[in-house]
Design a protein that fits this description.
The chain has 666 residues and is of the alpha/beta class. 49% of the residues lie in helices and 10% in strands. It has 22 helices and 14 strands. The two termini are 55 Å apart. Bound molecules: adenosine-5'-diphosphate and zinc ion. Adenosine-5'-diphosphate binds next to helix 7, helix 11 and helix 13.
Length: 666
């Protein structure tokens, strides 16, 4: 539970409301003046009581009317004194002109009524005329005034509060969050422990003349617990926590962001010692100058002003007073270099996705208040969730608990976790989506292709499940292959294997139907990326040698430099050829495997079409029938294909319309 308290102290609040009142009074007076002005004029225009035209004619015919003024739109008339029954009733009446009534004057004359015309644009007309002259400029200046105030951002009126920082401030100790709540990021915790110490014992450090760091940058993918860590630092040090997101700084009006930054630091200094947490720092700290990466609302100007203000503030305050700024980003490479100079965010703490042990620890934190069945083994779940961030794991636990409740289980069981895992991995089941038969067939062969090739490749893990039940997020089917353990290093043969697995879906479509669908685009993208990294980053190409052709991310500024080192045209061509070789080799091997095991492919795909889901013993039995071709081992080791490969592929492409080994690969 986090308590939010109003942002200012009493004093400044009083000031606020005073100014607010002053501002409102100005507008009130103006509006009042307008209303009075209008009220003074309107009685002139609509005299007396409105009546239907027919009544007016009747009254004329009855001889009750004394005088008539015929306007373009209105007819005003005065009744004779004796025509009104009661004294209080007004004698003055009006009605609307009926233009088609051409004999009005005739009737009036007949009954001896005095009549006259009204000037075009009667009284209400000229009033509207005046107002239409007066109001637009008033509005114009009013809006201009508001915009100006916003831009200056100094004023504290309600409209002006756009310029105020929207920092949510948590009072002392109430972030309720400590390092205990965070698991799997031990290194980050250790480094932040120092920050806690600075905040607690600022005096100790300044006594010795040490400069406490002002800014710490938490770098890591979304959901890994950066916000949580920042809160925990505040919680551990028992200081207030001011938090704001970088995207909140970006406004339409130039200057608003800057004033928010100013305001934020002012508040922080009043509350010191405290933590300022800026989430999504990249949203406001994007590299300045010429890259043109700004999109959406807000001009470059605005962005630059905001960033400059932040730099100024960070230079201006004295960290030894106990204000420490924590920034979070998942894209440190786009940050303006000025932000990371000494005295600003000069420390980086990496908050990475947790490994298996870390995941288990995070799961343990999150199952804290959940009733678990005894059989539930968190280490098994941790093993099955490589790549999950803390937020994903929290989500998984919650999903499992929800499922258990829906299934009326007394405890959350392993089966609930299994189902939750599937959901989290592939998006929620979308049973309503019906596939065309042909589509379904394509998907089935595609997925079986992945599974069969996957079963043969080294260190790829076991294929746990194939499904052609359509799921959310555009996945029509999926093959779940879970590695037995986390992999931090991949050997060459594993990479080849992985690329072959990725291409196996498309290869199956080619082998069976002789044509490909669009469904494989994601696979192809991933396979090509991996092959390119082999050549340009891992130095795995014999032809090009162990040279890195890709720059590390810190040196690469989007828009300014190219991610590739400057290389000659021959090298560029060689890289492209090598990437193509790797991809095509893997493609050939995947096709070859499926071709050689065509009967297994058919059988498995048919039973998948029938069952929609294959898993467990059935699946592993089926996949154990897949035979490795003779050339597989050699290819995994060296990347070399048998002599017959190119001829075979040509034959195949003639037979089935598939195109490999030449440039028509699309
Ligand atoms: P980030 O700021 O990195 O995007 P958050 O700190 O907002 O991620 O994490 C979102 C949620 O995920 C947290 O509230 C917490 O429930 C869970 N979570 C993330 N990382 C961890 C972790 N290391 N340990 C425990 N819970 C975590
Ligand atoms: Zn696929």
């Amino acid at each position: 539970m986090v308590q939010e308290t109003p942002q200012s102290n009493r004093n400044s609040q009083n000031q606020n409301s005073n100014q607010k009142r002053g501002f409102n009074n100005g507008w009130l007076l103006l509006i009042l003046a307008l209303v009075l002005f209008a009220a003074a004029l309107f009685p002139e225009t609509q005299r007396g009581e409105q009546v239907p035209y027919s009544q007016f004619i009747e009254q004329v015919k009855a001889g009750e009317v004394k005088k008539v003024t015929i306007g373009e739109q209105q007819i005003e008339y005065l009744l004779k004194p004796d025509a009104v029954e009661q004294e209080q009733q007004p004698r003055q009446r009006y009605t609307y002109t009926v233009p088609s009534d051409a004999n009005l004057t005739e009737i009036l004359e007949e009954h001896d009524v005095e009549y006259t015309g009204a000037p075009a644009g009667n009284s209400s007309g000229w009033l509207i005329g005046i107002l239409s002259w007066v109001i637009p400029p008033l509005l114009f200046f009013g809006i201009g005034y508001l915009a100006l105030m916003r831009a200056q951002g100094g004023a504290n009126s309600p409209v002006m509060s756009v310029g105020k920082s929207k920092a949510r401030i948590y009072t002392e100790g109430s972030t309720d969050c400590s390092f205990k709540d965070i698991a799997g990021v031990d290194e980050a915790k250790e480094e932040l422990q120092e920050v806690v110490d600075y905040l607690k014992n600022a005096a100790k450090y300044s006594r010795l003349g040490a400069k406490i760091p002002k800014g710490v940058l938490l770098v890591g993918p979304p959901g890994t617990g950066k916000t949580l860590l920042a809160k925990a630092v505040a919680g551990e040090a028992n200081v207030p926590f001011l938090s704001i997101s970088g995207s909140e700084f970006i406004e339409m009006f130039v200057g608003v962001g800057a004033s928010r930054v100013r305001d934020l630091f002012q508040q922080a200094q009043q509350q010191a010692p405290c933590i300022i947490f800026i989430d999504e720092l990249d949203a406001l700290g994007k590299s300045r100058g010429g890259t043109g990466t700004m999109t959406g609302t807000g001009s470059n100007d605005e962005q630059e002003q905001t960033l400059n203000q932040l730099l100024n503030e960070m230079d201006g305050f004295d960290a030894n007073k106990g204000v420490i700024v924590l920034g979070a980003t998942n894209r440190p490479e786009v940050l303006d270099p000025a932000l990371q100079r000494p005295g600003r965010f000069d420390r980086q703490v990496l908050v990475d996705r947790p490994d298996k042990k870390g995941r288990q620890a995070i799961l343990e934190v999150h199952v804290g208040n959940i009733k678990l069945a005894e059989e539930v083994d968190l280490s098994v779940i941790a093993a099955r969730t490589p790549g999950f961030a803390g937020a994903d794991l929290a989500n998984l636990v919650n999903e499992a608990a929800l499922l258990a409740a829906r299934n009326d289980h007394e405890y959350v069981t392993m089966a609930d976790f299994d189902e939750a895992l599937e959901r989290v991995i592939a998006g929620l089941e979308k049973k309503s989506r019906v596939l065309q038969d042909e589509e379904k067939q394509t998907v089935a062969y595609h997925e079986v292709g992945h599974a069969m090739v996957g079963a043969l490749m080294p260190a790829a893990g076991s294929v746990e499940k194939i499904s052609i039940v359509p799921r959310g997020a555009g996945a029509l089917g999926y093959t779940l292959q879970l590695p037995e353990e986390d992999r931090f290093l991949m050997a060459e043969d594993e990479i080849r294997g992985r690329i072959a697995i990725m291409l196996a879906g498309r290869s199956a479509e080619e082998v069976v139907f002789g044509k490909v669908s669009t469904g494989a685009s994601d696979d192809i993208q991933k396979a090509t990326d991996l092959a390119e990294r082999c050549v340009t980053l891992y130095g795995m190409s014999d032809r090009l040698g162990p040279i890195a052709f890709e720059k590390p991310q810190q040196q690469y500024i989007p828009g300014l430099s190219s991610p590739r080192r400057s290389v000659g045209p021959e090298v560029t061509t060689a890289i492209d050829e090598e990437v193509k070789n790797i991809v095509e080799g893997a493609h050939w091997m995947a096709q070859h495997i499926l071709h050689e095991n065509r009967d297994v492919l058919e059988e498995t795909a048919q039973s998948l079409l029938e069952e929609e889901v294959l898993e467990g013993d059935d699946l592993s039995q089926q996949l154990s029938k897949v035979k490795a071709p003779a050339s597989l081992e050699e290819w995994l080791k060296t990347g070399k294909l048998p002599e017959s490969a190119s001829k075979e592929s040509q034959d195949r492409s003639i037979n089935q319309g598939a195109t490999i080994g030449n440039s028509k690969l699309n």
